[in-house]
From TrEMBL:
Domain Phosphatidic acid phosphatase type 2/haloperoxidase, first and last residues per copy: 190-329
Keywords of this entry: Signal
Origin: domain of life: Bacteria
Protein name (record): Phosphoesterase
Signal is among the record's keywords: yes
SMART domains reported in the protein's UniProt record: acidPPc
Length: 638
């Protein structure tokens, strides 16, 4: 990507074309002085306590190329354990031959197996404005966004052959007046959202300083054995021929740079741009948070498919974008803009779809043809793209969440405090031990897709309050992760929270108000459950490992199925206080029939009775049958 306006370009460097760099350790290396002694510099910087990234991100300009002077170069320092930068683009030294060999073998395999359709897709995402490409992550809201933002592109398909010249995105001649590339026009109905995207992708968000600092070659300049060999020949297009089996998409051959010294691979600029745009859109439209993160990872993968970048390049782009997006969104100078962009997006989409803040999420996930409609498929696709060829090494250490990172979840989990959002990021983070991800502040360990599904563990007691009157996620949300830890959960407020994971937290569950939905048999963890108020609802049978206590006014809402086990199984004792309520629903597909006796609660012992037992049926009523260790209901006709 070109240097942003106003940034200087480093002085000329050695551009020798004949080189052999062995990643296997046996071939002789071309001797060259290093640009900076990375590990020594990092150690020296550590002694002077560098500023947190979010406080120092404006140092990312091409005049600053060392970890001491550039915050982005500093957080990408994990790569300094893999690759030692040389004085020129072709004089670097591999420090981890195993990683770089696996990197190139992966690229060779992917580009060799690429289909024609994948190649065409890779061309489109190479040439199309990255902020426009990310709009596809909005799913059913995508077309509405494009029209509302007046966002357009001229790159919609790939040519059949190699274009004779460079192709750049532009506003089509027949586009409506006021149309704009990328995220759209600032004067449109979604102008604040477009401005937010451009702000996140602002003057300090370029990948060029990192490229110049690391000078790691692109994969098409290296062969499958991870060697760079210039044959001295040129191809029919005039490009140097390297002994390389990384196959670039034919349509992109003339889109490549002819200046290796100004065209480093690490970090990937397109990847950086995709993720920056995705997190800006996700802040404004959190109803599509996970799908936008998934699309950013998917489009970044096309950089490898195209042959233009390698896995380490893409990982570097994701790391820097995560940190840069957080820094920009956390910057007080952007506080008013980000809030206004979120409000504008919500008002626009609810107005266009006839929804409310409470129902927009459902509309945003209503299209079965949405390529990101399947959350589980998204999770499976995303997981390997967070680490690619990296192998985890050593024992994992807990993550200290980087300062300001919690802002990335500010609109997705608005009912949590900043400290709680940091806990969500910490408990859903990747383990340590992945060399590229373990740089300064370890931004690469953040797993935003998983974090959007709530806590990964309750390492201390968690109290959460959802206020239904505020709408959106504050009215109802779901935590889908499998939650562990020694702590417990207390649910307060009028909103509804669904726990859908196979949870193992041991500190117990307390419901004080609102609705708590058990969306999995083991949703309520391994501790005691106490209902002091509100409604606990379960559509399928639930198991409780501890005791169950239900106070006055609290409602247990269960669904009865034909020929099924008890709807609630409690390992310990059940105590029902006077004034407690049991509300029963008949399963729409497998309802029990009149005259049958259906088990409801099974426990080691049961004390007390419900003040009333309700059944949602016009034709049947439920007659409770209590025993010393449980409760059944006999269904009789009214």
């Amino acid at each position: 990507m070109p240097s942003p306006a106003g940034q200087s370009t480093p002085s000329a460097v050695n551009r020798r074309r004949f080189l052999k760099v062995s990643f296997g350790g046996s071939a002789a290396l071309v001797a060259a002085p290093t640009l900076v002694s990375w590990l020594g510099a990092a150690d020296a910087k550590a002694a002077t306590a560098p500023l947190p990234f979010v406080d120092d991100y404006r140092t990312n300009i091409t005049a600053n190329l060392t970890p001491e002077t550039n915050a982005v170069v500093r957080i990408l320092g994990g790569f300094a354990r893999v690759w030692k930068t040389g004085a020129a683009w072709n004089t670097g030294t591999p420090l981890r031959a195993d990683v770089l060999r696996a990197n190139m073998q992966y690229c060779t395999a992917v580009t060799g197996a690429r289909t024609e359709a994948q190649g065409r897709e890779a061309f489109v995402h190479d040439r199309q404005h990255q902020s426009y490409a990310m709009i596809g992550g909005l799913g059913p809201l995508s077309d509405l966004y494009k029209s509302g933002a007046k966002a357009v592109t001229s790159i919609t398909s790939a040519p059949d052959t190699t274009p004779p010249t460079k192709i750049d995105d532009a506003v089509p001649a027949d586009a409506p007046a006021g149309s704009a590339l990328g995220a759209g026009s600032y004067t449109s109905d979604l102008g604040l959202v477009a401005r937010l995207v451009d702000t996140v992708r602002g003057p300090y968000a370029s990948g060029n300083p990192g490229k110049y600092a690391f000078q790691y070659p692109r994969p098409w300049r290296m062969n499958e054995n991870s060697e760079v060999v210039d044959t001295g020949r040129t191809d029919a297009l005039g490009f140097p021929v390297y002994d390389s089996k990384v196959v670039v998409v034919p349509q992109l051959l003339r889109q490549r740079s002819t200046s290796p010294a100004d065209d480093g691979g690490f970090p990937s600029g397109h990847t950086n741009a995709f993720h920056l745009a995705s997190l800006a859109y996700a802040y404004a439209v959190p109803e599509r948070f996970q799908e936008l993160v998934t699309r950013a990872l998917a489009l970044s993968h096309t950089r490898i498919v195209s042959g233009m970048h390698s896995t380490v390049d893409v990982l570097g782009g994701r790391i820097m974008a995560t940190a840069l997006a957080a820094a920009t969104l956390a910057d007080p100078a952007n506080a008013e803009l980000k809030a206004a962009a979120r409000a504008q997006a919500l008002a626009y989409f609810t107005g266009k779809t006839g929804t409310t803040a409470d129902t927009l999420f459902a509309y945003a996930h209503s299209d079965a043809s949405d390529p990101y409609a399947d959350r589980e498929a998204n999770a499976r696709a995303n997981a390997p793209r967070l680490t690619y060829v990296l192998e985890r090494e050593g024992r994992s250490t807990p993550l200290t969440v980087p300062k300001g990172a919690e802002v990335l979840l500010e609109t997705r989990l608005p009912y949590l405090t900043a400290a709680q959002r940091r806990e969500v990021l910490r408990t859903t983070a990747l383990p340590s031990g992945y060399v590229l991800l373990d740089g300064f502040e370890q931004w690469g360990r953040l797993d935003l897709f998983t974090a959007a599904d709530g806590y990964g563990a309750f390492d201390s007691d968690v109290t959460v309050t959802l206020d239904a009157s505020r709408g959106g996620f504050e009215a109802a949300d779901s935590w889908r992760n499998d939650i562990g830890g020694d702590g417990g959960l207390t649910k307060r407020g009028s909103g509804a929270l669904t726990l859908s994971g196979h949870n193992r937290y041991r500190g117990g569950t307390v419901l004080e108000a609102g609705v708590l939905v058990a969306g999995h048999e083991r949703a309520l963890g391994r501790g005691d459950v106490r209902l002091d108020g509100g409604t606990l609802r379960a559509g399928e049978p639930v198991r409780v490992r501890g005791a169950w206590t239900q106070g006055a006014g609290a409602v247990l809402d269960l669904t009865l199925h034909r020929y099924h086990a008890p709807a609630l199984r409690v390992s310990g004792r059940v105590r029902l206080d006077r004034g407690s309520v049991l509300s029963l629903r008949l399963d729409a597909d497998r309802p029990p029939v009149a005259g049958s006796t259906v088990p409801v609660i099974e426990a080691s012992a049961l004390r007390g009775q419900f003040d009333r037992v309700e059944l949602n049926s016009d034709h049947l009523r439920a007659v409770p049958v209590y025993t010393a260790d449980g409760l059944s209901v006999r269904l009789v006709k009214r």
